[in-house]
Predict the structure.
Amino acid sequence: MRRAGTALRILLAAAAAAPATGAAEGAPVRIGSKKFTESYVLGEIAVRALAARGIPAEHRQGMGGTLILWRALASAAIDAYPEYTGTIAEEIVREPAGGSVAALRPRLAQAGIGITDPLGFDNTYALVMRRERARGLGIRTIGDLRRHPDLKAGLTHEFLGRRDGWAPLAHRYGLALDVRGIDHALGYAALASGAIDVKDAYSTDARIAENDLVVLRDELGFFPRYEAVFLYRESLAPAAVAALRGLAGRIDQAEMTRLNAEAERTRDYGRAADAFFGGPAVAEASAARKIAGWTARHVELVAVSVALAVLAGIPLGIAAAGRGWAARTILAAAGTIQTVPALALLALLVPIPFLGISPATAVVALFLYSLLPIVRNTATGLQDVPPGIRESAEALGLPAGARLVRVYLPMASRTILAGIRTSAVIAVGTATLAALIGAGGLGEPILSGLNLNDHATILQGAIPAALLALAVEAVFLVVDRIAIPKGLQERPK
């Protein structure tokens, strides 16, 4: 047996060390899903299968790619999610030759993770092109792409980095295309417009037929089988495990393609899951109620993170107002954090044991992003206190602490409050990314809408987020009138 990679061993160790309690007694079973239509639909199917047995469940949808979902499962942030045997073999246990469920089961059991039997369909990776374009160039197989190095390929970011993705595929076939990373759903729009010529896809994707695309034949058999299964924590209640195992063998290739098409047509993953069970649609919360729930979580994430940033940022700003290496180090560190892309920061925080895939990770990320405006404005406000006022405070014999609290901070209060307001507005926008790690908020409908190419769903998140930013501005106008000393407030012209 080949030795698993270091990253796998770390993840397996983390999974084994995680508390083997699963969801708390009476708490809903947490089903995760990746950020593409089929995973959303399978997540909804799992929720309904559990509900049919009287087991409460919730769907944390669109949490990202394989690594994020696996870490979430290993750390008990979720209890189960749909996965594929080829992906498990290539990306998780790193044993490409052991891609059968029988071979995977003992490897996963070492980490306290169970696997169902296959659901009934193989959703392999594929490269697709517009039929007209492929016919015009005489391209039928992946190998035919060698003759056309000028073609533009738009590939998902996960596919670009996978062991069974673009780099090894290009090496096996000797391909040298013009490659760029693109979101899965947006890639179909780019393909239809001619912005790209080739895209990675899933064989059960309904958009292949809808967009009249042709699947290029994998003549070298590069892609392994990707039989759909559910991974679950073995600590999960037996009844919940039985519900997930009961889905094995019930969804064939044609059925999964039909359900994907239903989800794309109705813009509703839950309705597609209802179609699978053949029963009446499960009543779902109204759009207004869902938006209210997303907004409440969004406000919670922003409020907690900004409050923590104020508690830490003002003292740091006071320290940064001085001179010397300490002041320069504080400002440099806060500025450096601000330059780290939000997605990269989330990825760096997720592996930390006490954070993982949780709202706490989102709060920490937002807290770090909120620091710079508060630290910088506090330091600037204190540095701008006129020398005459400093001298007067000293002449009165006030101790250093009293001068700071009773004179300097009030004088700098307008500048400090402006920094807090900037941090809050930044946090409102950045918090939409919390949905990528299952932390909820207004990013959920935005991600779902991007996946479905549904502008109405995107606006369910984007409009409330914009209104929330305006509300923050309005709140701070009121706070300005209350907190700023009368003599320092702007007078109307």
In short: Residues 311 and 395 are 31 Å apart (CA to CA). The radius of gyration is 27 Å.
